[in-house]
Amino acid sequence: MPINVSIVEDDDGVRAGMVRLFEKSREFRLLADYSNAEAALREVPAARPDILLMDINLPGMNGVECVQKLHALDPSLRVIMLTVYENPEQIFDALRAGAIGYLLKQQPSERLLEAIRDAHNGGSPMSSQIARKVVQFFNPGRQPEATIQLSARETEVLKLLSKGHLIKEIADQLGISFVTVRTHIRRIYEKLHVHSRSQAVAKMLHPRP
User: Fold this and answer.
1) Which residues does 46 contact at the CB level (< 8 Å), separation at least 6?
2) Percent of the chain with pLDDT over 70
3) Angle at the Cα of 85 from the Cα atoms of 80 and 86, rounded to 5 degrees
4) How far apart are CA 80 and CA 93, in angstroms?
5) How far apart are CA 17 and CA 30, in angstroms?
6) Which residue did the predictor score with more confidence, 154 or 206?
7) Which of 2, 15, 63, 200 could in theory staple to 9 by disulfide, Cβ–Cβ 3.0 to 4.6 A?
8) Which residue has the higher pLDDT, 46 or 125?
9) Residue 28 above 90 pLDDT?
10) In DSSP terms, which residues pair with 55 in a beta bridge?
11) Which residues contact 111 (CB under 8 A, 6 or more apart)?
């Protein structure tokens, strides 16, 4: 019997790539793919996939909240989180919500399929980088995190954000477009593992040693 898989991923390109991967395999059967958590929450409990691949950063309800709600409806549901982030808080939030695995998206296709097999057989697959974060959590101080590197332009944008400037004001001051400022802000959030202006500023003013 094939392993039944469903996908929740808002990036059309990433989702299409995974769909093609499963369509070419006889070992796996794709039940459904969703672009948002709300649709998955409506349909996954009835579909009952063997493995659910869940992105964390989704429009509307995020992946961690969706897993928590799905797990409350079906505690046996096995969910593997897929993300570009190595944020320890997100890792443990996802695991507490009921996820059994946590993989970085930049994995070879065969590694993803291997992780699904592992989860289906009762394992808890994690990318090596994620496993290292978990080990570091239980062994604090052994290996400090790498220094976060912002580009010169990102640093300028963050400094203006810290002074309370609006995106349009930052664009005018730096002589760049509104869209470019938004792109810089998104990258700043990704690098700092934060989700708001206040969190980004706080991390700039009080960096971890």
Assistant:
1) none
2) 84
3) 90
4) 13
5) 12
6) 154
7) 15
8) 46
9) yes
10) 82
11) 103
Nearest to 21 by CA among 84, 131, 105, 81: 105
**Tell me, what amino acid is at 115?**
A
pLDDT per residue over 114-134, tens digit each?
A: 999 999 988 888 877 666 666
The first and second tokens of residue 152, run together, are 């010169």
Maximum Cα interatomic distance, the chain, rounded to a whole number of Å: 61
What is the average pLDDT score of the chain? 84
Structure tokens belonging to residue 114 = 């291997």
